[in-house]
Design a protein that fits this description.
By secondary structure, the chain is α/β, with parallel strands linked by helices. The protein is built from 8 helices and 8 strands.
Length: about 290
């Protein structure tokens, strides 16, 4: 009897949390921002129902440059620290490895920014207050948006290609920044990279999609979060691009987690989330110029 009472209590708690979440945000799922090979590229939108501040934060759904789909209701808890601050969150999916290359994934997420900016009024956001974050491969894509974006091509036939894909703030968790070291012809390539089809590239191809090589003075303010014991994406990735940002006088901060590997748990996770939210509050506030 006690077991059933506990189970009922848990179920009721889940229902209450779900209802509270539904009241806090409005979810628009599977918004199409492009097509390729007869397939749609999509994102989900999590809009605060109260106290929305007009800022937008894009989350790069990517692990190993593979973009998975989950019911948005299962993702909303991840974004709650942001939606509670009034940010509208976009969960961006891209064409996945091995069918699509890293360069094609970069092209997809760049298109997503153009689409969101062009439709800013539809999403009730400010087109000049767009941030992006991601973890691992998602962090790499976030950094590519922060370092290798453009103002759009005014002569393009596609109206979307005329729109800027620049972002105004970046947070990158445990992100690879120089893919040349992971290329198949890299002398010190880690054996673990054989498990990632997206990294079946040479150093010349890898250089094109290495954020470290795209750093310039006009890059977006960037927060780097990295584990000092990360064996998959060693800490030098974050340290090197942080040094490049400093040299270019780009606003940047690196937070190293001494005992963390490729991902954070417990207090590290809480600290990282707090830092991420604070970064976007700082750089996407309505009075930011």
């Amino acid at each position: 009897m006690k077991t059933w009472t506990c189970l009922l209590t848990v179920c009721l708690s889940v229902i209450v949390i779900a209802r509270l979440s539904a009241q806090e945000i409005q979810i628009s799922s599977d918004v199409v921002y492009g097509h390729k090979f007869g397939m749609a590229t999509t994102f989900d939108v999590f809009t605060p129902t109260k106290h929305a501040n007009g800022g937008a934060v894009l989350f790069m759904v990517s692990g190993g440059w593979y973009s998975t789909w989950k019911p948005p209701e299962q993702m909303q808890e991840l974004f709650r620290p942001l939606t509670q601050k009034g940010f509208t969150v976009f969960s961006i999916r891209h064409g996945s490895s091995p069918k699509f290359s890293i360069s094609e994934a970069v092209a997809d997420v760049r298109r997503s920014v153009r689409f969101i900016r062009l439709n800013a009024q539809r999403f009730n956001i400010d087109s000049n207050r767009i941030g992006v974050f991601g973890m691992s491969a998602g962090g790499h894509l976030a950094l590519m948006l922060g370092t290798a974006a453009d103002e759009g091509n005014p002569n393009a036939k596609d109206p979307l290609a005329k729109v800027s894909d620049r972002v105004n703030a970046v947070v990158a968790y445990v992100a690879p920044t120089d893919l040349r070291v992971a290329a198949k012809d890299a002398p010190e390539r880690l054996p673990a990279y054989d498990n990632y089809p997206a990294l079946d590239i040479n150093q010349k191809t890898a250089a094109v999609v290495s954020p470290l090589l795209h750093v310039t003075a006009d890059d977006a303010p960037t927060l780097l979060l990295a584990g000092a014991k990360d064996k998959l994406v060693p800490i030098f990735h974050s340290r090197n691009i942080h040094a490049a940002f400093k040299k270019a006088k780009v606003t940047s901060e690196l937070i190293e987690f001494e005992n963390a590997g490729h991902g954070f748990g417990g207090e590290d996770s809480q600290k990282a989330t707090h830092a991420m939210v604070a970064w976007f509050v700082r750089h996407l506030s309505s009075n930011e110029k």
